[in-house]
Amino acid sequence: VAIRPPRFLKEAGDAPADSSFPAVAAAQILFEDGPVNWGELYAPKLMKRKVDGEEMLDTKFSRFIGKPPIMMSGMTPTTSFYGIDLVAACANAGFQGELGGGGLPTPELTESKIQELVDKQKPGVGVNINMLYL
Q1: Residue 74 CA, distance from chain mean position
Q2: What's the pLDDT at 31?
Q3: Dihedral over alpha carbons 31, 36, 41, 43 (to 10 degrees)
Q4: Are strands 129-130 and 99-100 parallel, antiparallel or unpaired?
Q5: Which of 68, 73, 78, 85: CA 20 to 30 A from 103?
Q6: How far apart are CA 86 and CA 97, in angstroms?
Q7: How high does pLDDT run on average in the chain?
Q8: CB atoms within 10 A of CB 122
């Protein structure tokens, strides 16, 4: 049974023999329009936010969350039980800070730490929780 490749795939023989990087060769094989300049497509650029005119890096992530493209992910135990100050400082500085839920094993403890975080954050700053282990 012959399976036809999706429309965007080229024949494997179309890749140039002198490609020195496997990713370049793969891009040349996979896309009909030839080589793809990943830097032009995905490299961060400078932009000004409409809300306040502040310059920041423009990436898919920063456009999605409306903040600089830096995220401090939830790291149990660092950003859970004893890390409320760290998460609040990150969020108050304008970055994506995440409370690690893995170190908060009971509903009462989780609720108290979320309230502690809310109390330490500036008004309007959201709470982000990694609930992977809850």
Answers
A1: 13
A2: 57
A3: 140
A4: parallel
A5: 68
A6: 8
A7: 76
A8: 10
